[in-house]
Amino acid sequence: MPDDKNLPDPCKVITGKAVLSYPHLFRPRAVKAGDEPKFSATLIFDLKEERATLERLRDAAFHAGREKWKNFDDMVKQNRVRLPWRRGEDKGDAKGYGAGKIYINTNSNQQPGVVDRRVQPIVNANEIYPGCVVIASVRAFAYDTRGNKGVSFGLNHVQKVADGEPIGGRARPEDDFTPLGEDPMFGSGGSTDDMFR
Known about the structure:
5-stranded mixed barrel, CATH 2.40.50.140, 8 strands, alpha+beta
């Protein structure tokens, strides 16, 4: 008989490529005052390019839901349970979302591992920003808290695989400014002493 401990975890998924949004991977953040601070990230998937990932996420979510409730499928049909994925157009005109995108929110009480393409730890938080491309290790779990029932994804680890166009609210300096050339007061190679002559 096979040892169940050696079987793959049906609730765990290593995703394909996702655009990272709202990353809080180095310091936990509370969503609302009084909430427990958590590490978190939103993962945005392209519906066409990452259909296989989305199918694996769906299978993991349904497995977790069926483990928790025998009538989970009926609960889904009757909209009595929250599912973890959202359509990009639900975010309105938010940059990086929109039609053809599906996103999931993930969180963890423990800090996730954050590594680069060589699986070396990333310690500079500036390397991880909204818009970079990552793959993630996530695990589906079912919850029933204060009358809210649903399935969500816990965040295990994140691997940055590529830079991408920043999608955060803060612009890059090169987007705000244009090169000005030499300072007309100093000319080229001038000094503060020259200014008063």
